[in-house]
Amino acid sequence: MCGIAGIFHCGTIKPVDPARVERMCDVLAHRGPDGSGVWTAPGVGLGHRRLSIIDIAGSPQPMESADERAVISFNGEIYNFRELRKELEGLGASFRTDGDTEVILAAYERWGTDCLSRLHGMFAFAIYDRADRSLFLARDRFGVKPLFMARLSDGSMAFASELKGLLAHPLLRRDVDPHAVEDYMAWGYVPDHRSMLRGVEKLPAGHFRLLKHDAEPAAPQQYWDISFAERRKGKLKDLEAELLHHMREAVTSRMVADVPLGAFLSGGVDSSSVVALMAEASRDPVRTCSIGFDVAAVDESSYAAKVAAMFGTDHASRIVSADQFDAIDTIAGMFDEPFADASALPTWRVCQLARESVTVALSGDGADEAMAGYRRQVFHHHEERLRGILPASLRSKVIGPLGRAWPKADWAPRPLRARSTLLSLAGSGASGYASAVGAVPMDQRFALYGDALGSQLDGYVAEHAFIDMMERAPARTGLDRAQYADLKFWLPGDILTKVDRTSMAVSLEAREPLLDHRLVEFAATLPDSVRVKGAQGKYLLKKTMERYLPGDILYRPKQGFVTPIAQWLRGPLQTQTRAIASSSALARTGWFDKAQLTRMAEAHIAGKSDNSRLLWQLLMLDKSLARLGIVA
Q: Which active-site residues does the annotation give?
């Protein structure tokens, strides 16, 4: 895993200052502490920070191809590089190194941009082709690895693995995109189709971009998409066998490394499944790590210990305090853009623990999106069946008004919290699911916006892009559409961003075997009935893993990392909570109604209402603005 950065002049050829590229890379040193390099030629500069994983001594970057035609700066891992290398050698290619970087170069020289369909892995890279004087930027299928881009005032295109790499360039303007503020308030993160800064883009997952010196920048092109349009037929046992085959291949291919390798182990279905298959494939004990909390109600470390004992892993566990509020400034600095998923804190802690003994850690991320493991997906599946039964007039004229009249009762037992379900049933499946995924409802956030921000938005609503994605999905059912949107929108914007930044902050490479594209493509063909069974999501995965894992691991209620934000905002962060409406960087933007913010903060501090989620988002937005020195 590494950090990359570079500068490319479009429409002209100007010299690139290597010191400027070096500065862009220096701020990414946490992504690659083992080495660095800069390469420049007329009109182009590539930079690299290296975390050595494979061919530790023999693959420095930026790397030139053997014939000096192409130069690459690459972040990621190609898991099938040895198979590709054999194929390319059979076609006449020769290699000087033993790593995957040179294989990408040879694949590009042989197949051009079509090489992307042959690469199995996670990656973001830039290849400069001297022959046609072009820059080839590419990002992996799911967006595991990030790539930010910005057109600068001198006509150049700058790119970097993180926004802070672009911020190191003196020509980057720091003007906020108001649409990104609306997106962030809706989702709790800035999704991949948007950036916090005007003029900054993120290369979409599964896309590439070709830039030329003699032309204006071309738009990104999609080379891969996930389709839910087909259906696999077969008996349950046959589907289990096929799923297990894909999972074994995905796990074993990600166990290749020339440095110590281990796994995160939470004790849940996904990480336990990965550890079980690692143990099956390894002669030596698998190194695992987990963290627990000093609050018994949210501590799952006993389940992780049980799985570790079952498979004889070399297990490290640490109990951490739930009070991690002193780390939120550090977290804000990791993400650059505002990021309000509070599970980033414990994710960073488990990455810190893993890095004490390994350089690479496998995770269970991606299974919920690919195999319908989220509770919201299960609810949506059943809601869609109801929508198909209930007449549209009944849903709009009876159920909708009933939902609007139903009291909001977050404190009540779940069966009595019917408001959101009723409102969801009254609308379309896509709008209902957008509400389920979102962080702050549209009416609540628009009520907080000041006149200036409301005017700048000019009718823009964050949910529309998500709804459009669901409605255009290559899919058959509502469950298909929900999973498609989770894979394309939620996964790269929230989950993969969280894991990339927290792991890279400690120079740890995280690998996601359950996001192997062949495994996900198979899962997308499964009938709804083997993805969701009654109240059970990930049904086929759980049935498949019954041969490895006990029922209390497979079938207990899902529980993620929990952070006591509500208590923090009333206690140690009380002063900062009040400052959101008065003296903070956010208050000075004028984006929000200060009187409303004050009432909301005081009501929360007094315990009259729980506004913790919204206040937390505002606090993280404030910290992001303050750290970046962004001008509103």
A: 2
